[in-house]
Amino acid sequence: MKISDKKGFICDMDGVIYYQNQLLPGVKEFVDWLYKEDKKFLFLTNSSERSPKELQLKMQRLGLEIDESHFYTSALSTAAYLASQKPGCTAYVIGEPGLMNALYNAGIAMNDVNPDYVVVGETSNYNYSSILKAVELLHRGARLIGTNSDLTGPGKGGMIVPACRALVAPIELTTGKEAYYLGKPNPLMMRCGLSLLGCRAEDTAIIGDRMDTDIVAGVESNIDTVLVLSGVTRQEDLERFPYRPKYVLNGVYEVMDH
Questions:
Q1: Taking the complete model, does pTM exceed 0.90, yes or no?
Q2: Annotated catalytic, 5?
Q3: What is the pLDDT of residue 153?
Q4: Which long-range contacts (CB under 8 A, 24 or more apart) does 126-134 make?
């Protein structure tokens, strides 16, 4: 089956649809094509900072009109996981409002005294005192959760910055406790994505710019993979990995022709 004949598409965002606050080339044409061909699509992001509504508004500012239902984040995946594991649990959270709101909406209350979980996501408010608090609570019996396993992410001016796993690392090293990471490539995130799409794995493609999250997620979920070179991965980087994408394209706009 050609990639353009797939019924459903799971798309990463940063490095695929936009970079920083700029829409990448051919994205508007790609989104128009998705609608015109009546494709099912979902923007699946490991970012936990923003809610689907905020992501919808960001896309709107970039000139794309996309319904809020087309967005799913690692924050939502984390909230769903905790709510299924221990309904009515509490958490100490290091993260942004998108994560806290997702947890709150799943019935998970904030607790900095005796929480069931310490949950860590990307945030600009990360500091030493929050690390100390997390370490203290883990020593008291809380369990450690990371919203995603990304070590790095894109920053301003093309700089590479620490992402969730790098923020969790000091807490893991200090306590000797390993976090459980949601988000891509966790199969829970992928199964939820397929369920939201209403598509089978064989009828779906995943499009991303990262080998260690997007592409390995597709490989492990038996979903055809499309690596785009518009984000953090370069052609020469592929040799470092023991798995390969099915397609390597310059940008998401090339999906329409393959």
A1: yes
A2: no
A3: 82
A4: 126/94, 126/167, 130/94, 131/170, 131/171, 131/174, 133/92, 134/92, 134/94, 134/171
